[in-house]
Amino acid sequence: MTRTRRIIIASATTALLLAAIPAIGNAAEMPGDACTVEGQILPLGNGAIQCVNGVWQPSKSSPTSAPNIKNATIFKPVGVALSQSTFGSTGKQVADATAFLLPNGKVRLFAFVNDTNGLPGLRVATSTTKTGLTFAGDGTNPFPGTPVGQPRAVALGGNSLRLFFVEAGNINSAVSNDGGVTFTREGSVLTTAQAGFEPGVFTVIKHKGTYRAYFSNLEKPGERAPRVMKTATSPDMLNWTVGPTVVAEGGSHPFAVTNKSGKIALYYPADRGSAYGIFVSTSSDGINFSNEKFVMPNGGDPDIIRLSDGKALMYYGDNVGADGMGVRVAKAISNIVP
């Protein structure tokens, strides 16, 4: 059977994107040598080396062969959450959804909509029930006149949230105290110069007394660049210190969750040759991730939320049929931090 690879929609203002790691020829470089393309993987002998923080280092991955893929049965798909029909759009592209739990138990989603009837940008939809499975568009745009994208909501308590988003080559933020109806901009929190590349989506957790974020290089149309993820730390979610590259295999558009013991699960779309979709890796220190497992075939742009009853849902990008690319929803059927 021929397997069709999915094209991930992850850019804030672009059309369909292919986030694949290209095969690269033999390298003359050796471990310890300087390198310039962060995350690049080259073959060396029977193994490979990867560019990490400007230095070639041994890598567990090979650009010419896929590692053994382990499966993790964590989420069960249950339906379509968002499509162009939700917003009355005709662009056949709804992507990058992020979820916020309202005080009344319903879920509010912020997503990028390629609206051919108006300017592409963020749109808002709210679940019709507390199950978080079906949604109605609110008819609102948090940032009218501005094509921002790749949003990520962080709950601040009650009806308040901070929204991180991609805009003009930076990660910017804004705060809302009315559940995401209106926002006050806070400016840039991570620039291209700080990141070392043009950053994409920004996911934030509280870990061991500080805020820790994960982000990848921004996917662009037609670009087949190596996917790189980095971490950063902050005392206040506004001033960030960029840390090292994480997850040696490479991935994009990460989403992080943690449990009471401090273990972190990082979900991200990636291409492993024999498997393409959403993977998960785990870490205790927030930097060194391992035990990668395959979670959702053909999925991209994951965002996970725990409902008021404690159950978890994952919203993710995928083809939804006649409406083109949209956002599906899956229920957690096992521990989301495996």
TrEMBL record:
<protein>
    <submittedName>
        <fullName>Unannotated protein</fullName>
    </submittedName>
</protein>
<dbReference type="InterPro" id="IPR023296">
    <property type="entry name" value="Glyco_hydro_beta-prop_sf"/>
</dbReference>
